[in-house]
Amino acid sequence: MHELLLLRAVEGVGFLLTTVPAPSLLRRAVAPAQLTRMLGVWSAYMPFGTALALLAGPLLIGVLGWRGWWVLTAAGTAAMLLWLPLAVPRDVRAPAPAGGAPAAEPWHRRLATTLRAPGPWLAALTFAVYAAQWLAVIGFLPTLYQQSGWGGALGAVLTATVAAVNMVGNIWAGRLLHRGVHARTVLWSGFVAMAVGAWLAFGSATVDAPVLRYGGALLFSTVGGLIPGALFALAPRVAPGEGHIATTVGWMQQWSAIGQMSGPPAVAWVASRVGGWDWTWAVTGAYAAAGLVLAWALQRHGLRR
Hints:
With 305 residues, the chain is mainly alpha-helical. The chain has helices spanning 2-19, 22-29, 35-42, 45-87, 107-116, 118-147, 152-164, 166-178, 183-202, 210-224, 226-238, 245-274, 280-302. The protein is built from 13 helices and no strands. Helix 6 (118-147) packs parallel to helix 9, helix 6 (118-147) runs antiparallel to helix 11 and helix 8 (166-178) packs parallel to helix 10. The N and C termini lie far apart (49 Å). The relative contact order is 0.16.
C-alpha cells in the first residue's frame, strides 16, 4: 500500500510537469490573436480525461481488473511520450547575455515574484473554490443516481456525460474572452450556474423529479466549465511578467488540488450530519459565493491589462 501511494505521488508530479508548461508553450506556438481561444480549448483536457475514465474505466476494469486498467493508462502515457517529440517544437534556447546584460531570473526568484503578486493568488483561490465544487458533485453523482434507480452502466454513462459537457464551458470561455466579454462576467456566470445547478441536482424540492435533477447537474457542469477555461486563458494576464506564466499556472494547479481535496470531504460531512444529500447545494453554494467575491477582486486588482 505504501508503494502504491508513493507511485501515485510520483504520478502527481508528472501531471504537474506536463500541464504547467502548456500555457507558455501555447504562447510560443499560437498566433497572439488566437491565444485566448486556444487556451480555452486546452483547458478542456481535465473534463475530457475525467469523462473518458468514468465511461471506459468500469467497463475495462470488469475485463482487465484494476491493475490491467492502470497498465492500459500507463501505455497511453508512453504513447504520448513517443509522440511528443514529433508534435511539439524543440525548445529555442535564448542567446547568452552580452557583456553587462542581466542573466535570466533564477527559478526561486520567479517563484517569489509570482507569490508576491495578487493576480496569481486570486486566480489560484478562484480555481480552488471551483474545483472543490466540481469534484464533490461529480464524485457523488453515482450515489445520487443509484438512489434514483439509475445504477450500473446507465449511471456511469450519465456521470460521464456530466463530466464531458464541462468541455463546452471550457471552450466557450476562451471564445467569449476573445470576443471582449469581461472576465468577471464569464466567471460570475459560471459560479451562478453552479449554485443553481447544484440546488436543482441535490435540493429537496426536486427529490421526486430525477430528470430535473439531472438537468441541474448538466447546468452545473456545462456553464461551470466557463471558470477553468477563463482562468487558464487569463493566466498570461494575471502573471506578474512574461517569465512568470508557468509559475502562475503551477500555483493555480496546486490550489486546484487543494480544492479537490477539501470539497468532497466537506460535502460528505454535511451529508452525514443531516442524513442525506439535500444540503449539498448549501456547501457548493458557499464555495460559489466565495468564487463571486474572488472573481470581482480578480477583475479589480489582478489583471495587468
